[in-house]
């Protein structure tokens, strides 16, 4: 008995060691195979890998299956990372090592300026590929943002984020405000009108309900209607001298200081998600993709309560939207380009809009979706509202450090809302912070 | 002149001097194995350490002397990143928050663990059930526990505010307050690690001879006196170990504040720890050189803290020993 023990134990140890080594081998193999974009399968089929973040809607709309059916010699391997802030750094390390990136990769609009400025040698110029035909089919600003100075097109647009105003008609009704989209739009000639209406709402609103969700979100909605935001057309950082930025900041800070906001940080505060269904706020600036987000977060509790109208004054704007690119490391550039071309065709973009609310960036698809309505939003003509906003949207100038500037200003506005910092101090704090970070 | 030497005592003349028969190849191999085997046995760890411990450490230092944006090539800048760091108020803020959250979580955590271990050390029914349940919070993932606590500390309808309302206090905006957010994070950390430390203390307590307790009981010491005069002195090395480990953990605190409120660590960075600050620079802003600099400074900070801990403990030990003599 006693002599038997060590042997069983060493057997167990050996078994454990074998499993460990096996596991290491398996993982190294699997990374090797997933990293191999040249995986032209032995049966003559081309294996295309597609790596995206969040919800692009292709899988949800069944587009990959459809493409495989139309092209029997192509198989598609698709994966998606939930958070873009995890997806992007991982993609960067793969690009830097020239290994492991998929044939088709998604690029968020906030990153496109960085890609165009610094990564021209890491992405395929789509102009010479089958996807190149698509460039002319975008709003001019959408393709311009993905074009380098020497004319290379590094990515093709998937969706854009034209904005409307989503509102809880039940809460507006309780406060005695108009609930009909047209009547509401008539009261909203400008952002100042929006603030004035908020004061009216606050006076009569049910307890625990604010006019809007957050000052940061409000600020972002205002600047997203501008052409020049943090950079000027020559690529200079002008955020602190641009009157549009200061005015948007002050307007949002006013809302914060007057307690017109629910003080819920967008995407970070778990209570923000709950607020859509729980009625913590009555209005929120709504890029097209937010429609899908609201449905997901508010669920059945919000069905038939939300509605949609245009931004104050019928302003157009853009918040968000993505691109598809093909890394240089891809061994299937031609096939990948065909897939990208097909995915960005009007028909496919319209299908994606029908599933997830991602608004097409292909102008040919505007007509296809302009008749769309949404039952969840009381049958609102979402296609019409967002098409009009997309057409009115200016050509935004994007810059490499947009995300850093925006995050700092939004954070400062949060401090006005939640920590009682004065708007002037908050602006100062953001200036100091940004001087340290990018100055 | 005989210099005191511990090595090489003079070989006794006689039997050694006469050359014996040459050792066979087999026995020489056997001896060789005896000499080299230990190195072979420890080699796997040290090889892995070289690859995954030392190399990243040195590489991080190399990066910290570069301007290295995510997605572009490194560019040598010398001490620029360090100058940037040491003149940046955000760094001192992060350092301060790391220390305050560290104290807020480590001190109650270790005191609670000590008390729990003392109670678990008594003979009682279902003792093992209690002991095993101690480790449950530690086995829970950071993500799961933080998400639950984020709900508990929610501003609208969170459990913590409901409890406050029971005693007639106004609810707090835990997430956005300064001290309140730090306390909330400290509670999560404490909840996760108290059981773990309690089990370590329990193990330490069980190595204390029961004779000591019996003798103390005969002398009329009650349980509190036994705890103070028998348990605590017996546990000193264990306590030092947990203090060191908790200090390292507190300095690297990252997951809890990140999941609690994102990389900024609050509107006023009120809970941006060094770990979060590093992550923000590296992955949110793509400044890998700066992130590497923060990583290195944090590493040095931990080394200093551990040395300080050990020195303090040694100094105390010597002090008490001196007092005993």
TrEMBL record, chain A:
Record has Signal as a keyword: yes
Q: Has UniProt tagged this entry with the keyword NAD?
A: no
Q: Which SUPFAM superfamilies match?
A: Periplasmic binding protein-like II
The signal peptide, as residue positions, is: 1-32
Q: Which domain of life is it from?
A: Bacteria
UniProt keywords, alphabetically = Signal
Q: What is this protein called?
A: Cellobiose transport system substrate-binding protein
Q: What is the lineage of its organism?
A: Bacteria, Bacillati, Actinomycetota, Actinomycetes, Kineosporiales
TrEMBL record, chain B:
- Source species, domain of life: Bacteria
Spell out the residue ranges making up region: Disordered.
1-22
- What's an example GO BP annotation here? transmembrane transport
Major subcellular site: membrane
Membrane spanning residue stretches:
39-62, 94-120, 132-153, 179-203, 239-263, 283-308
- What is the similarity comment for this entry? Belongs to the binding-protein-dependent transport system permease family.
Check the record and name the PANTHER family matching this protein.
Answer: ABC TRANSPORTER PERMEASE PROTEIN, INNER MEMBRANE ABC TRANSPORTER PERMEASE PROTEIN YCJO
What protein name applies here? Cellobiose transport system permease protein
Q: What species was this sequence derived from?
A: Kineococcus aurantiacus
């Amino acid at each position: 008995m006693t002599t038997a023990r060590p042997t069983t134990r060493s057997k167990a140890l050996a078994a454990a060691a074998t499993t460990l080594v096996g596991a290491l081998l398996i993982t190294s193999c699997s990374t090797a195979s997933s990293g191999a974009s040249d995986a032209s399968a032995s049966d003559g089929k081309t294996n295309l890998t597609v790596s995206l973040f969040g919800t692009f809607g292709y899988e949800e709309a069944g587009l990959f299956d459809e493409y495989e059916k139309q092209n029997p010699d192509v198989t598609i391997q698709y994966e998606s990372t939930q958070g873009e802030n995890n997806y992007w750094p991982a993609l960067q390390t793969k690009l830097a090592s020239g290994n492991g990136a998929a044939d088709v990769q998604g690029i968020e609009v906030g990153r496109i300026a960085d890609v165009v400025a610094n990564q021209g040698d890491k992405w395929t110029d789509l102009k010479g590929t089958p996807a190149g035909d698509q460039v002319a089919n975008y709003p001019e600003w959408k393709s311009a943002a993905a074009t380098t100075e020497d004319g290379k097109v590094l990515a093709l647009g998937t969706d854009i984020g034209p904005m409307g105003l989503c509102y809880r008609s039940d809460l507006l009704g309780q406060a005695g405000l108009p609930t009909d989209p047209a009547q509401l739009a008539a009261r909203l000639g400008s952002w100042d009108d929006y603030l004035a209406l908020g004061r009216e709402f606050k006076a009569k609103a049910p307890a625990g309900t604010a006019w809007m969700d957050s000052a940061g979100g409000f600020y972002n909605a205002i600047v997203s209607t501008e052409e020049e935001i943090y950079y000027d057309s020559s690529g200079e950082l002008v955020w602190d001298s641009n009157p549009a930025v200061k005015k948007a900041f002050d307007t949002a800070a006013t809302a914060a200081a007057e307690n017109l906001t629910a003080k819920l940080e967008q995407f970070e505060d778990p209570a923000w998600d709950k607020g859509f269904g729980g009625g913590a706020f009555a209005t929120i600036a709504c890029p097209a993709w937010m429609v899908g987000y609201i449905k997901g977060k508010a669920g059945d509790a919000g069905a038939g309560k939300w509605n949609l109208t245009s931004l104050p004054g019928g302003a157009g704007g853009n918040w968000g939207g993505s691109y598809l690119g093909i890394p240089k490391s891809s061994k299937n550039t031609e096939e990948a380009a065909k897939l990208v071309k097909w995915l960005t065709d009007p028909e496919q973009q319209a299908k994606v809009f029908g599933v997830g609310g991602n608004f097409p960036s292909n102008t040919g698809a505007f007509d296809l979706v302009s008749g769309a309505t949404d039952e969840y939003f009381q049958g609102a003509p979402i296609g019409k509202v967002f098409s009009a906003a997309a057409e009115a949207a200016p050509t935004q100038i994007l810059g490499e450090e947009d995300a850093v500037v925006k995050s700092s200003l939004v954070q400062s506005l949060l401090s006005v809302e939640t920590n009682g910092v004065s708007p002037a101090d908050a602006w100062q704090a953001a200036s100091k912070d940004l001087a340290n970070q990018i100055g | 002149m005989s210099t005191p030497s511990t090595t090489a005592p003079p070989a006794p003349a006689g039997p050694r001097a006469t050359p014996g028969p040459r050792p066979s190849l087999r026995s020489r191999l056997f001896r060789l194995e005896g000499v080299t085997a230990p190195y072979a046995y420890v080699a796997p760890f040290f090889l892995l350490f070289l690859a995954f411990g030392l190399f990243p450490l040195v590489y991080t230092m190399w990066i910290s002397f570069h301007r290295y944006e995510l997605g572009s090539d490194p560019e040598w800048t010398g001490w620029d990143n360090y100058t940037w760091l040491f003149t940046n108020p955000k760094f001192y803020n992060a350092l301060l928050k790391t220390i305050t959250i560290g104290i807020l979580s480590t001190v109650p955590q270790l005191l609670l663990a000590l008390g729990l271990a003392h109670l678990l050390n008594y003979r009682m029914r279902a003792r093992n059930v209690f002991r095993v349940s101690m480790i449950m919070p530690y086995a829970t993932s950071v993500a799961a526990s933080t998400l639950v606590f984020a709900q508990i500390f929610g501003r609208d309808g969170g459990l913590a505010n409901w409890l406050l309302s029971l005693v007639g206090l106004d609810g707090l905006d835990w997430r956005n307050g300064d001290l309140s957010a730090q306390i909330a994070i400290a509670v999560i950390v404490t909840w996760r690690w108290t059981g773990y430390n309690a089990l370590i203390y329990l193990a330490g307590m069980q190595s204390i001879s029961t004779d000591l307790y019996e003798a103390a009981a005969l002398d009329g010491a009650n349980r509190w006196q036994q705890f103070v005069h028998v348990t605590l002195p017996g546990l000193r090395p264990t306590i030092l170990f947990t203090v060191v480990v908790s200090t390292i953990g507190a300095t690297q605190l990252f997951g809890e504040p990140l999941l609690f409120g994102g990389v900024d660590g609050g509107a006023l960075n009120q809970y941006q720890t060094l770990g979060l600050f590093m992550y923000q620079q590296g992955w949110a802003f793509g400044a890998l050189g700066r992130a590497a600099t923060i990583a290195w400074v944090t590493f040095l900070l931990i080394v200093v803290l551990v040395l300080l801990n050990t020195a303090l403990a040694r100094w105390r030990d010597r002090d008490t020993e001196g007092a005993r003599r």
